[in-house]
Write a structure and sequence with these properties.
There is one protein chain. By secondary structure, this protein is mostly helical. 87% of the residues lie in helices and 0% in strands. The longest helix is centred in the N-terminal third of the chain and has 40 residues, at 3-42.
Length: 89
């Protein structure tokens, strides 16, 4: 197994990781920013006010994008498992 092959596999895995986690992270970031602006304007600094909306947003995104995420990960794992017999020695 050549170093170039291992680096290519690692790069594909990291790209997949970023692609699958991006929707959840982006939505939670936007919700957190909106809640932080709201807290700064109203001067209400309650910890649950920032935690609960982010949790709800993350669950909604996982419910909507979850099937796509799972399909993408399963396809990648299937490709990796099918590649095992063809790996260079």
């Amino acid at each position: 197994m050549s170093p170039q092959f291992v680096l290519t596999l690692g790069q594909e895995a990291l790209t997949l990781l970023l692609m699958v986690s991006a929707p959840v992270l982006a939505i939670v970031l936007v919700v957190g920013l909106v809640i932080s602006i709201f807290q700064a304007i109203t001067q209400i600094h309650e910890a649950t006010l920032s935690f609960v909306p982010k949790l709800i947003a993350a669950l909604l995104v996982l419910a909507l994008a979850g099937p796509w995420m799972l399909t993408t990960l399963v396809d990648y794992i299937r490709r990796m498992i099918e590649m095992i017999p063809q790996l260079p020695q």
